[in-house]
Amino acid sequence: MTDNILIFRTSIEKRREIKKIEKLFTQYPQIHVWNVDFEDWEKILRIECQGITPTDISDALSTIDIYATELE
User: Fold this and answer.
1) What is the CATH number for 49?
2) Among 45, 34, 61, 42, which Cα is nearest to 7's?
3) In contact, 13 and 64? CB cutoff 8 Å
4) What is the tens place of the pLDDT at every residue in 40-72?
């Protein structure tokens, strides 16, 4: 099965928030690869995953006070 690629605009402001995301995403084996583009003003989060929805990811991120909106 191939990975889905999900792309989000986020509220990430500081690089130290990456550690919080990393800790959170270790709880989700469905997330295989992810990264944040700090060069983009929208701080784009790109996720390669299987079996997890954009809503699941947005909800999980909101628990650590990071807000994400899927880009289509």
Assistant:
1) 3.30.70.100
2) 45
3) no
4) 999 999 999 999 999 999 999 999 999 999 998
pTM over 0.90: yes
Query: E strand or H helix at 61, and its extent?
Result: helix 54-62
Contacts of residue 66, Cβ cutoff 8 Å, sequence gap at least 6: 10, 11, 12, 17, 20, 21
Tokens of residue 68, six digits: 């994400």
* Token couple for 19: 């550690």
Domain count along the chain:
1
Q: Pairing relation of β-strands 31-37 and 44-49? A: antiparallel
d(CA 32, CA 72): 20
Domain with 39, as residue range(s), is 4-70
